Amino acid sequence: MPHLTRLRAELHSRRGRLGCLLWSAPMAAFVVAVLASPAAADRVYHSEHLGLAPVGGAPLRSGFVENTKAQGPQIYAHEIFVLNGAVSNATYTVTRNLFPFDPDCSGENDVSTSEVADLTTNASGNARGDAKITPEEVADFEGVHGVMWTVTNAADTVVYQTTCTAVTLD
Asked: What is the pLDDT of residue 13?
């Protein structure tokens, strides 16, 4: 029986090492992920989901702008625009309204507008579009700015808009 005792002790020892190894590997991966994420990610602004609100009674079941700051070498930011339940088979233009160094969009430093996407709704009034911003477009423009998006119809009337949001370019 002493050989069984020795076998149990060896098995217990190996199970202990295996358990330690199985515990250590995920823990090491977790530590690496936690320590690497602040260096790899933007600590100031990541992404934001902004609802689109109807203006003047325009029909809209739901709509939003998803503003994601990728901060990559080819794409600095990605904006996604969605309309759900708008006028069917209609064309809309999405405009980015940038308020330089004016995070509350008061207009004290003027406003810069850029038409960034055209949306065409289907028979249900749904549409999706996007815009990508390159690093070159935001170079030398670091700071906190106000941004809001507006959507105009074919008559160039604002029918949907987001609230103002403060965006940090770094």
From this structure: 57
pLDDT, residue 38, reads 39
Q: What are 1's two structure tokens?
A: 């029986």
Please give the angle made by the CA atoms of 75, 120 and 64, to the nearest 5 degrees: 60
Q: CA-to-CA distance for 38 and 30, rounded, in angstroms? A: 13
Task: Return the pLDDT at 71.
Answer: 77
Strands 47-51 and 62-68: antiparallel
The domain 47-169 having CATH identifier 2.60.40.420: the answer here is no
Q: Where are the domains of the chain?
A: 1-40, 47-169
Q: Which residue has the tokens 């064309």?
A: 91
* Torsion, Cα of 106, 107, 111, 117 (10° steps): 30
Tokens 């977790």 found at = 30
Cα–Cα distances in angstroms (integers) from residue 46 to residues 31, 42, 54, 126, in the given order? 22, 6, 26, 27
> What is the mean pLDDT of each successive set of 10 residues along the chain, which is 170 residues long?
56 52 46 41 70 97 94 90 98 97 93 97 98 92 94 98 92
